[in-house]
Design brief:
By secondary structure, the chain is an alpha/beta fold. It contains 13 helices and 8 strands.
Length: 292
C-alpha cells in the first residue's frame, strides 16, 4: 500500500494521529519503533537543524529532509510545505515534489512568501482569503493530477491576530477549494473547543511546546474529545535531543568524561542503534558475498 493510501486508511478508520516532528531518518525510525502510526517533518525543526530558520528554507531543502525521513520508515510521513513556496504555479510544483519524494501529505499556509523571520515572533503576514483559496485550489489540482490520495491540509495563521472567525472562514474557503483538512492556531481553551465545530473539514492541532504566545497545550485524549483528528507535536523531538546533547557536551568539555551513560549503558545503546539501522542485515549480505 502506498504511503498516501495508508494515511487515508488510517484516517478512515478513525485513528487519531499523533505526529512527533522529526528531522532526519533516525528520528523518523525511532518514532516508528515507538509505535506511532505516522510522523511529520516540520519547518521549525528543519530550519533549526540547518542552523537557520524556517522562513529561509528552500522548497528543495524541505523536500530532501522529508524525503530522507520517509525513505527510512514504512509509516506515512506528512510535511510542512510552508506557504507553498510561492504563488499557485509554484505551489503546484511543491505538491508534486513532495508527492514524488514519498510524502503522504502537506499543509500549506496563508503566509506571505517569502516568509519573514518575524513569523517566529507570531507576527502574522497573511495573504487575502481569496488568494489563499486560489492557492489551495491549485494545490488540490496538482494533488489530483499526481495522486488523489495525497493529503492537502489548509493552514491559517490569522487566528493569532484576527481571531477564530477570520481563521475558520479561511479554512472553510479552502475546504470549498478542495482541502482535505484544516489547521489553525486557537488562542484559548474556548477557541480550541469551538474550532472543530465551526470548520467544515477535520482539524489538525499543533502542540507547540515552549510557545511564547500563551497558546494552550492539551493531552492527546483532550484533543480527541474536542473533535481533532491529528496532533502535530512540533518541537518536542528536537528540543529533547538538543537539551540532552548540549548537557552531554558541556560535561565532556568540563570534565573530559561523560558519566550520563555507564559503560554498560553505552554498550546497550550502541547495540540499539545498530539494531535500528539494520546492521545485522548488512553483515548477512556481506557474509553471503564479499566476506566469505
Amino acid at each position: 500500500m502506498s504511503p498516501t493510501a495508508a494515511l487515508r486508511a488510517l484516517i478512515k478508520s478513525g485513528t487519531f494521529l499523533h505526529l512527533p516532528s522529526v528531522y532526519d531518518p533516525i528520528t523518523a525510525r525511532l518514532v516508528q519503533q515507538a509505535g506511532f502510526e505516522a510522523t511529520y517533518v516540520g519547518g521549525y525543526v528543519s530550519g533549526g537543524t540547518k542552523t537557520t530558520s524556517e522562513p529561509l528554507l528552500t522548497m528543495t531543502e524541505q523536500v530532501a529532509i522529508a524525503g530522507e525521513a520517509a525513505a527510512a520508515v514504512t509509516i506515512p510521513v506528512l510535511a510542512d510545505a510552508g506557504a507553498g513556496f510561492g504563488e499557485p504555479l509554484h505551489t503546484m510544483r511543491t505538491v508534486r515534489e513532495f508527492a514524488r519524494a514519498g510524502i503522504a501529505g502537506v499543509h500549506i499556509e496563508d503566509q506571505l512568501f517569502p516568509k519573514r523571520a518575524h513569523y517566529h515572533k507570531y507576527q502574522v503576514h497573511a495573504i487575502s482569503p481569496e488568494e489563499f483559496a486560489t492557492k489551495i485550489r491549485y494545490a488540490c489540482r496538482a494533488r489530483d493530477e499526481v495522486d488523489a490520495d495525497f493529503l492537502i491540509i489548509a493552514r491559517s495563521d490569522t487566528c493569532r491576530e484576527l481571531g477564530l472567525e477570520d481563521a475558520s472562514g479561511r479554512i472553510n474557503r479552502a475546504a470549498e477549494a478542495g482541502a482535505d483538512m484544516g489547521l489553525l492556531f486557537p488562542r484559548s481553551l474556548e477557541e480550541a473547543a469551538r474550532a472543530p465545530e465551526v470548520c467544515d473539514v477535520p482539524l489538525v492541532y499543533v502542540q507547540s511546546r515552549g510557545n511564547r504566545d500563551g497558546r494552550p497545550l492539551f493531552s492527546r485524549q483532550e484533543l480527541k474529545d474536542m473533535g481533532y483528528v491529528m496532533c502535530i507535536d512540533a518541537q518536542v523531538v528536537l528540543a529533547a535531543a538538543f537539551a540532552a546533547q548540549r548537557d552531554m557536551l558541556r560535561e565532556l568539555r568540563e570534565t573530559g568524561d561523560f558519566a550520563g551513560l555507564s559503560p554498560a549503558d553505552m554498550v546497550r545503546v550502541r547495540q540499539q542503534i545498530e539494531d535500528l539501522i539494520g546492521l545485522d542485515g548488512h553483515y548477512q549480505i556481506e557474509a553471503e558475498t564479499v566476506e566469505r
